[in-house]
């Protein structure tokens, strides 16, 4: 395995960390309804716990409303119970065939809390990225010593990993800025 392989491996891991951050951001509420806000909710149906998306279709009929339509009407009360238990800040409304969730407007204080939550997620992502860099640099240095490669080649590979980290941290910051603006927008 050459240093280029290590660099490509590092790039793939950093990309995965950035994708994880995007996924975390989808769960953070903004002023608009988003099906990913409730995708983590587990519903007890058919004797086991399963994600809500496996027992119902989730749509957004209006910008501030989620509509959950179960595949089987028998699990409707379980879906409602799971949504209440999840404590999402929205009250489910069961009309007998579907569950509606209207999003109340966010207060300024709540917007600041959500922005802080987004910042915390971004910081966790950056720490993860730095850990990836540390591990990859250790791999490069070990391989350089084992294969008796020139120090210049090892140093260049380490610098390349550092540059990659800077690029991906900048992407994480851009995502955080965009999410924070989205949260704070009234």
How is the secondary structure organized here?
Elements: H1 3-27, E1 42-45, E2 48-51, E3 56-62, E4 65-70, H2 76-85, E5 92-94, E6 99-102, H3 108-146, H4 151-184
Antiparallel strand pairs: 1-2, 3-4, 4-6, 5-6
Helix pairs in contact: 1-3, 1-4, 3-4
What does this structure look like?
By secondary structure, the chain is α+β, with helices and mostly antiparallel strands. It folds into two domains: 3-27 and 107-184, Topoisomerase I, Chain A, domain 4; 35-102, Gyrase A, domain 2 (2-Layer Sandwich), CATH 3.30.1360. It has four helices and six strands. The chain has helices at residues 3-27, 76-85, 108-146, 151-184, and strands at residues 42-45, 48-51, 56-62, 65-70, 92-94, 99-102. It has a four-stranded antiparallel beta sheet with strand order 3-4-6-5, with helices on one face. The protein is elongated, with a radius of gyration of 22 Å. The relative contact order is 0.17. The protein is 58% helix and 15% strand.
CATH class of the largest domain: Mainly Alpha
Percent helix, as a range, is 55-70%
Number of helices: 4
Mean pLDDT, all residues: 88
* CATH architecture heading of the largest domain: Orthogonal Bundle
- What profile does the largest beta sheet have? 4 strands, antiparallel
Shape: elongated
What's the β-strand tally? 6
Summed up, the domain count is 2
Q: What integer value in Å does the Rg equal?
A: 22 Å
Report the structural category.
alpha+beta
CATH superfamily of the largest domain: Ribosome-recycling factor
**CATH fold type of the largest domain:** Topoisomerase I, Chain A, domain 4
Order of helices and strands: HEEEEHEEHH
Strand-residue proportion = 15-25%
Low-pLDDT residue spans: none
Distance between the termini: 52 Å
Largest sheet, spatial ordering of strands = 3-4-6-5
């Amino acid at each position: 395995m050459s240093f280029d392989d290590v660099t490509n491996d590092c790039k793939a891991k950093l990309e995965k960390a950035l994708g994880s951050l995007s996924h975390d951001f989808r769960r953070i509420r903004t002023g608009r309804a988003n099906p990913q806000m409730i995708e983590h909710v587990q519903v007890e149906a058919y004797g086991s716990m399963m994600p809500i998306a496996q027992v119902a279709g989730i749509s957004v009929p209006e910008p501030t409303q989620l509509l959950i339509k179960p595949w089987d009407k028998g699990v409707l009360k379980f879906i409602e119970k799971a949504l209440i238990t999840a404590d999402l800040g929205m009250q489910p409304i069961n009309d007998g065939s579907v569950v509606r969730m209207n999003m109340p407007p966010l207060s300024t204080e709540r917007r600041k809390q959500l922005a802080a939550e987004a910042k915390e997620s971004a910081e966790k992502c950056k720490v993860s990225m730095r850990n990836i860099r540390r591990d990859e640099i250790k791999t490069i240095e070990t391989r350089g010593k084992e294969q008796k490669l020139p120090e210049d080649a090892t140093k260049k590979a380490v610098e390349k990993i550092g540059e990659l980290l800077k690029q991906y941290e900048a992407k994480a910051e851009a995502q955080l800025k965009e999410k924070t603006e989205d949260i704070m927008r009234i």
